């Protein structure tokens, strides 16, 4: 950053609003030489949007707009703040902000904001992560559709962590979103936003400076001071602690600042033992002194952070859900009010109780009561109230409405549909339809974990209420493979599957000869108890083993001898024991050779164990960084059963199709390891790798998948992150022109066009680019072209290009790249799909069928006439040439679609059979429909290929229509002229 810019930015921080305005005007007029200077200046200007002076806000917006004109890819930094200013009470500010939101850069940011936030939610920087969380809080109530897909990730992926702070982040997020308290949401998100902005400028910790900031009248300064304390709690002195106590009790202080002060005290208490008890007592005393629900919630959160418990039931019985949920976390283990909370079936309370009752201090009596409640499917999240109060007719009505719109529904509607399906199964166990089974399959295979969870829950209901549940289990058998579901990335899917297995085990106990299956189920519980990363799942598995099987696992006893005994007695349990022992060994010894030697010992003692040890689990443990480990992994694969690859591919494909990008990345990591063992394994995932490499929202994943495709020998584009991101913020016209004249990178340009093609007004531009790149010698450029067509055809955007599309797809449906060939076939099905009107006529005589077709050719509905022509095509291809006259007669049909269908049939026939139709076809060159004109030209071209002598006869008529501006017509005319030139040259 140059010296002059530094001076301007320093002046911007001065209290004088005149100095601020002067600096803002200077920044707004600068032309920035690099990305970094523009970014720092933009962040500085965004801070000024919090100014109380309307003139400062409006000038800051003007300056921000000027920076974004130069660097539109920085729009994502300003977007949430501009969105907020669009609701400002100051008319001038509101109008400027709303105008900025209509600019292309902001529109593209809005389209991508879901993806941008999803990246920030997984940042290693806690401030960036929390800022992303609060942006979700802020935007979701005002524009739910914008961030709808993020909500399950925000909650489920955070509760997956066994670390309490991440669990609380997910829990608090859901609490805030459900609180509907806009004022609280605004306040929290604004302050965390300030912290995120200021982190770029925060200085080193200095006690006197921190005290100065804490004593400031500006809340922004106080936030910075508190943030410095939070990152350096060990450096505080008694004077700073006194000031924090004063802030926490100050009635005029904002609730967020109180919370930050309390949290700072908690951090100090954790780091500094001498003041720990004093601070804890102050926090507990303040619970009685401050009756405010939000303050109570925040104080209990801090006590939870310090590991304190509260014996009283007062907070568990609170009317406020925020307080009840956090009270469950801080309640002492003997507080039976916890189990009463579970009856509410609230997702917040259920998850909070599960988290609390799977802690080490919970006695057996409470454990048993908890697990008994968990077994009941009707005590599950958000279903009990619905089940109790929902009328059966309403259930039927809602279910029937959603059954046929499953694929187009959002995850919220899908969850509601599954709850309704569970209610229907419970009330009418004998009446479940094929549609219900299909929707159950779809839910278990859905990309949203929360929807998959509901699918497993419906199966739990089925096992509880059906007299013979094996029928429904058999229907969905291929979707409930244990290896896939216990490796699901979603905590609640795994938990529900364990509860499903527990019930299934009960049912198997009533039948003889099921010992093998029951042992396999027990092995799943052992695996989850030992190896699941989420404490809720692992402890629940422990409880099931303890109270259902009478098995208590002492993890300290698991050694090589213990495992060798289990191999003989409980072979199914080998895998979880081996995995656990390996992980434990890595932690204690941390030497790669330890793992190899350990596995060698198992192999020497019992070679058959490799049929039980799953290579997929080994991929999590073995670091394939040296040749010795690689050779060992290859040896394991050779010794594994042949079906292992099929199982692994299903697990990995499930990960690759998940809505959450970190889950997809995990799947790509597994493929990377498999390729190190054997490059041929990459062919198992070709379609998924192509889909991610070319179409994934996350550039990083596209790049990884592209590299993996290269390793498999298929070749793929090299994704340039810089270009990929910058193109997303360029105007559509710039992208289109760049692709036309090849002055931008094709891959990144085609990807951007694919995202926006359905919003382009001039479809001729799109079709020109498609026509160009479908002929590319690079398979991925051809695929982009056809995927653009597929998207537009699905949205009925390019009906006027119907026959060009059919012609192209027919030509390329045998493309050597399977995914391109399949895409072409899929487009043809979309374009030319009409149901036969003669489905039941197979036994009719030939004459009766012809009579019907002749009748249909005169039908008033053009769809019927088109279908009749398609049926005639089949008869003609079988050698019934007398019906060609009926096809020629349709060239005078009033509807363009019928005429083009007839032309298509004639163009496929031998010239001698259709020569009599030539005058009619030439007449169609002057048709009112450009599509008919184009199809007539294509037909003449095909006939000329078969009989070149007609070229001189038709060229006068062709040249008469050269005035057409439509590029596709011009292209066909040019082709005919070239054909005629070559013909005349030869003759």
UniProtKB/TrEMBL annotation:
InterPro entries: ARM-like, ARM-type_fold. It comes from the Archaea. This is HEAT domain containing protein.
